[in-house]
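Task 17 of the worksheet. Students: predict the tertiary structure of the chain below and write it out as structure tokens. Keep your answer in the requested format; marks are given for formatting as well as content.
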Amino acid sequence: MRRPRLPAWLPLDPYVLALLATVGLAALLPARGTGAALAGGASTAAVALLFFLYGARLSTREALDGLRHWRLHLTVLACTFVLFPLLGLATRLLVPGLLTQPLHNGLLFLCLVPSTIQSSIAFTSIARGNVPAAICAGSFSSLAGILLTPLLAAALLGKDAGGFSPDSLLRIALQLLLPFLLGQGLRRWVGGFLVRNKKVLGYVDRGSILLVVYAAFSAGVTAGVWQRVGLPRLGALIAVEAVLLAVMLLATWYGAPRLGFGRADRVAIQFAGSNKSLAAGLPMASVLFGAQASLAVLPLMLFHQMQLMVCAVLARRRARDPEALHQDQPDARRVVEVSPEVQPPAGQGR
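Model answer:
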């Protein structure tokens, strides 16, 4: 008897369900006391491991080759660190009518976070876009965000984000940049192992993010911050984020051709330019916001799940574009040596 499967059009993914289950677990059984300290330490180590794997997977040759697409990377960086923040500043008009000031701070912080690596690669691959460009664009954005996100947070959020300090920048660099560079340095020796065990390491990737989510939400539950977010405010936040995601998806898709990009690059720009990294955002928030990090990451958590569901459906539709079906793009269809957050369904997206 065949196991029933979800319809391909249904915007659900096991990883999204796992994220929701993790949030539910943190709400019912939050880590407290010694358990909270252990969860916090484990999540810090998990993020460091995650960025080590990012560095070890990124081929130095691919990174150097990717520099030739500097116009594409500058476009993605402009979407991530210019257009997104401008839209975030515009939402200040919604305070206090729809959003509270703390929720707006979190929404603005979401707009300052770098692009994701895993999701942009996975969706670009499914949509038959320029996968090597997505790999480099996501990696370059994450590295740039180590410096740009704290600087932008200090400039736009001020004291709400603790202000900019060399100590906060150093802590972020030690947790994100140093493991990434270490992975690059050891790629020569560990690259083969990662290729042979990429499926198992995919679970390590996802498990690391789930651990960070559990620690962050546990801290929020024990501090009582969620009691300050009523259902009407939560609904308003979700609606605002849906509009924000829609604007970015439309701007990247219709703006790319005006800049002279072909379809494959257009796909990479859309997904790398509209997605935000939960893996990078959570540790940055814990450094910048301190005790208020739990509430500050709520908009990022919601946006991350929304982008996974929406982009999973969008990528599958992009793969059925007549132009995609008739183009010859071996690079866009090759097997990528990463573990994406969203795997293409069997028989689709390859």
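Marker's comment: The two ends are 27 Å apart (CA to CA). Confidence is low (pLDDT under 50) at residues 1-7, 328-350.
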